[in-house]
Specification:
flat, mainly alpha, single chain
Length: about 180
């Protein structure tokens, strides 16, 4: 939510908000605070310790959706992230910070929602650099984003192959 939207929402009676990508520890913390309870949540990992993929998030998707739906979702993510990364690279070649920031925003949310934690973190940092018009940091982070995207792509494809094998084995199907 943008700052002006948050003010509108609070004036309308909203107690609080959680922005995308939704992180379970933040959502649960907000709910506990609003409900007057307390949760024993681990402290957030420092930025450098962000995993490439959140296996917990991927497993939670598999727990609530049939595997074929998770597989389709992740394949759609891979296609979309490739498209937005290409748009971001093209905008970077023109030095268009506003566009880079917009594409980084999309990648922050989509990557975070499916467990691509490293890509989401780098994209969020890139978005902040674009918003503050820190061109040097933005260009460096755009390079990091390309590297993170390639790493996530490979890890996601490997996870999909392994998860497909496990799902098939659970159903007694030879792969």
């Amino acid at each position: 939510a943008m700052a002006h939207q948050v003010l509108e929402y609070k004036r309308a009676g909203m107690d609080d908000f959680v922005s995308k990508p939704i992180r379970p520890e933040i959502l649960l913390g907000q709910l506990a605070r609003i409900g007057g309870g307390a949760l024993n949540m681990p402290a957030a990992a420092p930025e450098q310790d962000v995993p490439v993929l959140s296996l917990e998030k991927l497993e939670s998707l598999c727990a609530i959706l049939p595997f074929v739906k998770v597989q389709n979702l992740l394949q759609l993510y891979l296609l979309d992230s490739e498209k937005y990364l290409a748009l971001l690279v093209e905008a970077r070649s023109r030095g268009a910070l506003e566009e880079i920031g917009r594409f980084a925003h999309v990648l922050t949310g989509t990557a975070g929602n499916i467990g691509a934690e490293k890509l989401s973190a780098v994209a969020a940092a890139l978005q902040r650099a674009c918003r503050t018009e820190d061109r040097d940091a933005a260009m460096k982070l755009a390079d990091e984003l390309e590297e993170a995207a390639a790493t996530v792509d490979a890890a996601m494809r490997l996870w999909l192959v392994e998860a497909q094998g496990k799902a098939a084995a659970a159903q007694g199907i030879a792969v």
